[in-house]
Design a protein that fits this description.
Layout (H helix, E strand, L loop, with lengths): L1 H28 L2 E6 L4 E3 L11 E6 L3 E7 L2 E3 L11 E3 L4 H4 L4 E3 L8 E7 L4 E10 L14 E4 L3 H15 L2
Parallel strand pairs: 1-9
Antiparallel strand pairs: 1-10, 2-7, 3-4, 3-8, 4-5, 6-7, 8-9
Length: about 170
């Protein structure tokens, strides 16, 4: 009987690992939603734990328009689309310290809505963000303006369930 118990435990362990890998894969493929109010400033997040001096980062709008390029710790505005000129900043002091390659978009316009991507080819990071731009609402708009409401479609309930299942399977 102990052999059957060990075999069942091995099967459960394998199922747990499969579910966990599936969960990680599905969560990483989902876009992050960022909500901004017209006229506000919003931060589009992008970071990486590998902090290399020669890190290259490409920020693109709808996979084609150049928003900002970072090359070896320096911002390159050479090919930047005119619509972003003077409205996009990054955090150069945080490139090496925190691996933070987020950008700040000022004076958000309705035409800024769409998909932004942060691509780091050297380390294989490709983050996609959907910027949703809304018009100012009633008097409570100022509480949210400028903060950017980041909403990832994470499967937190599934993640919690998988974690609990893993704990139960791995610790009888």
């Amino acid at each position: 009987m102990s052999n059957r118990y060990a075999s069942d435990k091995t099967i459960l362990r394998g199922c747990f690992y499969f579910l966990f890998l599936l969960l990680i894969h599905s969560v990483s493929l989902e876009n992050v939603h960022v909500v901004a109010i017209i006229g506000s400033t919003v931060i589009l997040p992008c970071s990486n734990n590998d902090k290399h001096e020669s890190t290259v980062v490409f920020w693109r709008y709808n996979d084609s328009k150049v928003v900002l390029d970072i090359n070896g710790g320096s911002v390159s505005l050479e090919n930047q689309e005119v619509v972003y000129s003077g409205r996009v900043d990054s955090f150069p002091e945080e490139y090496m310290k925190k691996g933070n390659f987020s950008i700040k978009l000022r004076d958000v316009k309705l035409s800024d809505a769409g998909t932004y991507s942060c691509f780091m080819p050297q380390v294989g990071v490709h983050t996609k963000l959907d910027l949703i731009v809304k018009e100012r609402e009633s008097s409570d708009w100022s509480d949210r303006a400028g903060n950017g409401d980041v909403r990832g479609r994470s499967n937190s309930v599934l993640l919690l369930f998988t974690s609990l299942l893993g704990f139960i399977v791995l610790h009888p």
